[in-house]
Amino acid sequence: MRTSIRTAGVLAALLALGATGCAGGRTTQDFPPPPADLTSTDPAGPDLAGTDSVSTDLVGTDLVNNVRLVAYADCDEMTEGLRRAAARTVTPWGFGDAMFYAARSDVATAKQAMPEQQSHSTTNTHEAGVDEPDLVKTDGDRVITVTGGVLRVVDAKTRKVTGTLRLVAQDQAGDQSWVQAGLLVHGDRALVLFEGGGIIPFGATATARVAPGGPRYVLVDLSGEPRVLGAMTVHGQHVDARQAGSTVRLVVRSQPEIAFPAPKENASERELLEGNREAVLSAPADAWLPSYDVESGGASRTERVGCDRVSHPGRFTGTSMLTVHTIDLAAATPFGSPAPIAVAADGDTVYGTAGSLYVTSNPRWWGAHPIDVAPAPGSSAAASTATPGVPPERTEVHRFDVSTPGAPRYVTSGSVPGRLLNQYSLSEFDGHLRVATTSGDEVLGASPGTGESGVYVLDAGTLARTGSVTGLGKGERIYAVRFADGLGYVVTFRQTDPLYALDLRDPAAPKVTGELKITGFSAYLHPAGEGRLVGIGQEASEAGRVLGTQISLFDVSDPAAPAVLSRFHRKGSGSEAEWDPHAFLYWPSTGLAVLPLRNRAGGGMAGSAALALRVGDHEITELGVVTHPRSPARSGFAPADQGIRRSLVIGADLWTVSGSGLKVSDAATLADRAWIPFT
């Protein structure tokens, strides 16, 4: 199964905490290049019978938005277009698995989505009113968690577990702590997202087992003792999910299911390629149509996305489908209505607002990359080989309209130079989409010190470029991005940390207004009152060697002169908040900031705790730390104890969450109030 970019990013970031420098990944020479015909204006894909009509020098500009905004007329049209595109893209080894040019950290910044008058905190999300999956949720009365394959409901007032539902069977060692899941909740219904797939939920009468398949989404009733209402297993890879009100949008990526011929002994690459292309050109429509299994009311069924619900942008490879499933948590039958839609495109990053859902991908990170193999004279592939060499980096952007509760509508596609850091590199504001990317840099095999970054402003309706500002952080790459209405902040890093302040109020003429250089870097930026930003990252030496967690308070009240007001440094430590914004808590009414902290010891990581800080108008001070009892030793392939991972505020209480349990502390003094173990 393909490892997701998000998962790979977390693993990379964890490894980086114990390292003194970045280990070099495979260079671009290790991988065949993506297709040169991504710029083809043929909406059905490149024509195998001739040469592409558009020169590859178009790669240096925005892709032409030659987009069909309607679904295929019928299955024959869809199959023919996908066959032709996929035959152009297939390699002698098929479509391949994820081919990463280098490890990518999924560092994130977050936008505060919590009204100050609330008595409880919510998941730290990118956009207000758009929820994101996480391992804990609260409505102020209940705390709902999913850890180790077990969902638990805790009463916030009595601090007692009121409901438990095991969704994954215990193995012989009794340890399922490796099972990762997220939660989305509306009223008395919870959707549990098992992103890795292969998980079968079970109850008193069901048999627990691990089965093949893709991501699994389990609907749970919380009105009494928690119970499973239904489930959906998708044949593909989970990309991400967003929730607005009771409506959840699930984004899934799938590859065509094509049986390639077994390679013959001593066959040349040309012969292998020819056989694979023939298999592609004879594959049926069902090879591409995404499928999913639904279980409800004791019955199960398998469904496919209909040909009439599949669309495509002006250029596509035929090697991937993006499917958007819509689930209404308030509906009597949430799964299967409305029907999902699909687009012939790749995707790895999701950004959502109340009215738009954006899915982006960088072809350099994903899937099949054809190589330059000379076809036999007169063969069907004679005029269709890919141009050798690595193409410029580009981020493809696909926009869906989700302004109504029903099925989304595919609107348009476009692209910008470079690659995204994560979803926080995207921001929709005043009819425009702002996109921050990095081009070059040795992390993708380019020469050291060649990276530079830019912010591109696109018309949200067409994704055509309105304006841009480039040349940020030459020789560096983006580590954090934060957009705030008409302003933006970009952190780049190689040896020092330039924090750039940008004026984006004129979409046609964005500009840099100020720059601040300090040692280290911020990997996550968070608003902390009028004219203030908190940065979570790493302190570094003048040579760029990381030295431990650093929390900075920036004054950005004057965009022309950003300044650092206060810095807190903990040597030899790292925090999950550096790459996952859900791990950071900021409570505006008191200035309380909490983040997990893990200290390095003996080359490994030890001593997990939650660090509590007080963020004032001019300084950051330490309030103290919260610790949990250590979990018992793990067995088998289960990972080590991850320690405290989340924190939340309910009234005057600070709740912290780990795989061992929940601790309740006084939010002002950190005095212990209760310990709720997970048994």
UniProtKB/TrEMBL annotation:
The keyword GTP-binding does not apply. Residues 1-25 form the signal peptide. Residues 115-126 have a biased composition (Polar residues). The keyword Acyltransferase does not apply. Keywords: Signal. Residues 25-53, 115-135 are annotated as: Disordered. This is Beta-propeller domain-containing protein.
